[in-house]
Amino acid sequence: MKRIIGFLGIALISGLLFSGGNPEAKKLDTAGKYHAAFGVETDYKDSVHRDAYFEKKYKNRADRNQLIIGKSGTVGYRILEGTFKDTVIKGNGTYEVSVTNANFNQNRSFRKLYVATDIPYTKKIKFRNVTISMNGRLIRTYEKAVLDEGEHGNHYCVLLLIDTNDDRVRNAFARSSVPTSTQNEIKISFDVKGFVYNKGEQPPTPTPVPTPTPEITPTPEAVAENPAAASVQTVTAEAEEVIKEVPIENKIGIGVTVVLAIGMIVLCVIMVNRRQH
């Protein structure tokens, strides 16, 4: 009996670990607020870039909000001039991110231009009318945003303006349009839709969470009569509590594991009863 219980415990833990879901992924809150940042990377060996992504390994860097060459702690690392203006997304509306007076170190072509957000990748939020302008001149308008489907798109919504690794926007406009003067301005604006409130409004108050149904505890008489059956009820209640704490995308895998666990316990009850008879 101890071996079977141990096996069931392992099965339940395995379900929690392998039931899917990205460790950095978050549940979308359509009444919440999010952030967007201007991202850029130039060609050539000494690439000038600003990694604006919201994954932890980028967000925790001390130089995240600066234009740099190389990587901190390595030979050739430099911080260059350039002021970034990011934005907070609060509801449906039009938003803008930009960089001004950027020193691109005489690099002449872009490898990447994008807007990184911390909005979980989902089809519920739509991005449209994405425009990019340089020094007041409109360069390109995307009626529908091109979202990153690669490494970064697995976590959050990233709007691509140009990316040499993505055929959809590889030649979206002339990559050799990097400003030659340090007196410059690059703006990217975009429309957001899919939230339950609009820009400038107060988000709606969350609906109160219903009070959970009290847990049914078996009586001492029932436990004495059939201790194995009481174990089934206890394991089921504990499993349900675990499921409530897990994101929705993981519940299916956990549910399957719990059903298998309960099935094994029921078989144990039957075997014990038969032996008693």
Note the topology:
Layout: H1 2-18, E1 34-42, E2 48-50, H2 56-59, E3 67-69, E4 78-80, E5 83-85, E6 87-89, E7 93-100, E8 110-120, E9 126-134, E10 137-144, E11 146-147, E12 156-163, E13 185-193, H3 220-225, H4 227-245, H5 248-276
Antiparallel strand pairs: 1-2, 1-6, 1-8, 2-3, 3-4, 5-7, 7-13, 8-12, 9-10, 9-13, 11-12
Helix pairs in contact: 1-5, 4-5
Describe the protein.
This protein starts with a helix and ends with a helix. It has 277 residues and is α+β, with helices and mostly antiparallel strands. Helix 1 (2-18) runs antiparallel to helix 5 and helix 4 (227-245) packs antiparallel against helix 5. The protein has 5 helices and 13 strands. The longest helix is centred in the last third of the chain and has 29 residues, at 248-276. A hairpin with a 5-residue loop joins strand 1 (34-42) and strand 2 (48-50). It has helices at 2-18, 56-59, 220-225, 227-245, 248-276, and strands spanning 34-42, 48-50, 67-69, 78-80, 83-85, 87-89, 93-100, 110-120, 126-134, 137-144, 146-147, 156-163, 185-193.
In brief:
It is built from five helices and 13 strands. The protein is an alpha+beta fold and 277 residues long.
Can you give the helix content as a percent range?
25-40%
Q: How many strand segments?
A: 13
C-alpha end-to-end distance: 17 Å
**Helix-strand category:** alpha+beta
User: Could you report the average pLDDT, rounded to the nearest whole number?
Assistant: 81
| Largest sheet entry | 8 strands, antiparallel
The number of helices is 5
Low-confidence stretches: 7-23, 242-248
3D shape: elongated
| N to C succession of SSEs | HEEHEEEEEEEEEEEHHH
**Beta-strand content bin:** 25-35%
Cα-based radius of gyration, to the nearest Å: 27 Å
